[in-house]
Amino acid sequence: MFELPKLPYAFDALEPYIDAKTMELHHGKHHQTYVTKLNEAIQATPDLEGKTIEQLLMTLSSIPEGVRTAVRNHGGGHYNHSLFWQIMRPPAGGGKEPQGTVGEEIAKAFGDFGKFRETFTKAALSVFGSGWAWLVADSSGKLLVVTTPNQDTPLTQGLKPLMGLDVWEHAYYLKYQNRRPEYVENWWNVVNWEAVEERLKA
Q: Torsions phi, psi of 191, nearest 5?
């Protein structure tokens, strides 16, 4: 059975950029629903029991058709959000520019951090409706910026997600209403680059 992961910080820890009420609802309601619905799909298909979320999402085509959509949507929601919580941190330690390996690889792939940030921001703003913007590594280790609709994940495309930004309205509407650009701009203040670096090295 999959479980809702605990947040590595308090609901209000990302203030003033992401408000406590949004975090409480986003984590405790939205993410919990994905976990609950995913577990229901797994219970209905015993052959899937014991598989990791990555294994499920990377083999979607082999999952029984009756539960494939549920695994794609709710499994993707669980995976995406579990990553999302980890790559953020309180603003006192977040934001800034990435150092170390991830900073070097971003500069190598995009020219410099400013160009990467511009590319990633444009991708996040280009998502029509609900979805995600991602920094990923392909099979050769090259860094790319991609987007996915709804709760789809880059894992299904053979890509390794390093950093993801949720641009579903539930991620920002209570504080920013329809101002997605402001939400995206402020989100950079809470990026946990150390966590992104760990994912890159892994």
A: -70, 130
| Separation of alpha carbons 42 and 200, rounded Å | 30
Task: Report helix, strand or coil for 145.
Answer: strand
Per-10-residue mean pLDDT, the chain, length 202: 97 98 98 98 93 96 95 98 98 90 96 98 98 97 97 96 98 98 98 97 91
pTM: 0.96
The encoded tokens of residue 174 equal: 């209570």
Cβ atoms of 165 and 132 closer than 8 Å: yes
Q: Which residue has the tokens 């799909």?
A: 41
181 vs 170: CA distance, rounded Å: 15
Fold of 100-201: minor pseudopilin epsh fold (3.55.40)
pLDDT of the residue at 94 = 85
Say which CATH class 20-86 falls into.
mainly alpha
Give me the half-sphere count of Cα atoms (radius 13 Å) on the Cβ side of residue 131: 16
